Amino acid sequence: MPSATHPATPHFAAILFDLDGTLVDHESACLEGARRWARELGVSEDPDR
């Protein structure tokens, strides 16, 4: 049993990075996150404004 000072460290056989969207298309999620962030900062989504 791990102690409070030495918590258990998970062991992974591999870590998978999908940096180019081959496995999961996450473009829409990134765009929505950027839109929300812009709204919170008071920035217009319209680049002409």
Automatic annotation (TrEMBL):
Keyword Hydrolase: yes
Pfam families membership: HAD_2 (PF13419)
Keywords: Hydrolase
Gene Ontology MF annotations: hydrolase activity
TM region positions: none
Record keyword Lipid metabolism present: no
Name used for this protein in its record: HAD family hydrolase
Organism: Corynebacterium rouxii
